[in-house]
Amino acid sequence: MFYVAEALLLGKGLAFSKHSAVHAAFGEQFAKTGLVPPDFHRWLGRGMEMRHAGDYGHPGEVSPEAAEQQMTRAQQFLDLAERLLGPLSDPGGS
Fold first, then answer.
1. In whole angstroms, what is the distance from residue 3 CA to residue 85 CA?
2. How confident is the model at residue 52 (pLDDT cuts 50, 70, 90)?
């Protein structure tokens, strides 16, 4: 989700060096303007929280159900990117 948000911001000529700046700018540029539903901004923040919990927290802190939900949201982010940026081409030609 983070990389999709970053790509969407790059499409507007915006680049940031901090995760928190990408999150804030995504909210300002996309959620607050109505280009994307506000849920996407919340999901981006929750994804960052869960990544930190999974990377640095205690074992079992992220449940399989929560991970599955985040995977579904990540797919929705990819679908959003395809709608806003266009489909990705297959470099292999298949």
1. 13
2. confident
Handedness of CA 88, 1, 83, 6 (dihedral sign): negative
Residue ranges covered by each domain of the chain: 2-85
CB contact at 8 A, 29 and 21: no
**Cβ distance 58 to 67 under 8 Å?**
no
b/e per residue 16-45 (b: at least 16 CB within 10 A): beeeeebbebbbebbbeeeebeeebbebbe
Which CATH number is 2-85 given?
1.20.120.330
Is the pLDDT score of 11 beyond 60? yes
Residue 60 per-residue DSSP state: T
Place of tokens 């081409």: 89
pTM for the model: 0.81
Is it the case that residue 94 has pLDDT exceeding 80? no
Which pLDDT score is estimated for 23?
Answer: 95
